[in-house]
Amino acid sequence: MSKIIMQNPIVEMDGDEMTRILWKLIKDELLSPFVDLNTEYYDLGLPNRDATEDQVTIDAANAIKKHHVGVKCATITPNAQRVEEYKLKEMWKSPNGTIRAILDGTVFRTPILTESVKPYIPTWKKPITIARHAYGDIYKATEYRVPAKGKAELLFTGADGESFRETIYDFECPGVLQGQFNKDSSIISFAHTCFDYALETKQDLWFSTKDTISKQYDQTFKLIFADIYEKEYKSRFEASGIEYFYTLIDDAVARVIRSEGGFIWACKNYDGDVMSDMVSTAFGSLAMMTSVLVSPEGDYEYEAAHGTITRHYYKHLKGEKTSSNSIATIFAWTGALRKRGELDGNVRLVAFAEKLETACLQTIEDGIMTGDLAALCHRANIKKVDSLEFIKAIRSRLEKEM
Ligand code: NAP
Ligand code: MG
Questions:
Q1: Ligand 1 nearest-atom number relative to CA 75
Q2: Which of 118, 155, 233, 265 is the most buried (most CB within 10 A)?
Q3: What's the 18 CA to ligand 1 centre distance in angstroms?
Q4: Topology (CATH) of 1-112+301-402
């Protein structure tokens, strides 16, 4: 059979450590034999980020704006220890942070479900997708450790002078202080991205904040969502048979636990950070979670939700066998290839992405899995395999599918 041709490229961002090893194996074993891969390659591995003074990350983000689809391998976010380990010129920023800042996106995280691994919540039948607003709030806050007695005020100086001043607290002793912000423009694009994603995936959209307590800040989020929904999406949601509703975050948490899944839960930045870890753990593991960053312009960046699996990499370097789960990284590729196929009207490419995903799930249903899944699976007759054997087992099923 002839290889599948891609009319347009996807932006390929290579990464670090164990996931970099998996990246190459996935390309060699599961992609290149079947697809004439057309990618624009950016090496986001830490040595090359250092060599290019992180310019490569900026170039990659701009390339996603140009080609609209990217796929990214997990990368190291340097800390002091990494600066030492890699002899870095600087403690470079998180590549995900840099890319998010350029694309201004919303991150959607969805667990990959299999029959073999049962969620901790027995009623959950379908995946719950968390849509995390990836801008502002405590991630861009200004903080101050109040040393002693004194008055803290909130002051706003408009273009034409001071227009707001209010006492936050008159400190009689040491304490803490924090100033957060967000922007209407960012909240508006967050709302649009969530409504569009709900329509695209035909799932209900829930949105939760704490507007009863935060009467200006969270209330603004709620009102912007409500306004955009009424004006631009209501009729399309009704026509698609899907629903949008707003509820308080505490009510949402209770409802999510009682639900059967199958919806998108839009969260403010911090709520989304915390809740996505809870949801992924309750469904099984971070190694079975996909992540896609969607920009307001309709650019898509796919990745795995986990990191570079450092502990496995050090074993690999010592020549020991590892049992790293490549599913989330493979699904990052299938997500990107499917999206490329949809944008280009490339039916063969879309079909390939489906078949590769089926082959992955089939492998696990056949009882062949990596150590992390074997530990969660309560079935008998499980064969625990190493990183390469797992990918080979997927390959043999993919060949049958093709
Ligand atoms: P991690 O790479 O996600 O791994 C933490 C642990 O989770 C692993 O040691 C392993 O447990 C398990 N695990 C994660 N993914 C797995 C997989 N695919 N298969 C099997 N087991 C898996 O997190 P980390 O060790 O905290 O971070 C390592 C590096 O990744 C850091 O430098 C961090 O900056 C970076 N990071 C990058 C991203 C990203 O690029 N999106 C996200 C998070 C972290 P066992 O050791 O028990 O087997
Ligand atoms: Mg988190």
A1: 40
A2: 265
A3: 9
A4: Isopropylmalate Dehydrogenase (3.40.718)
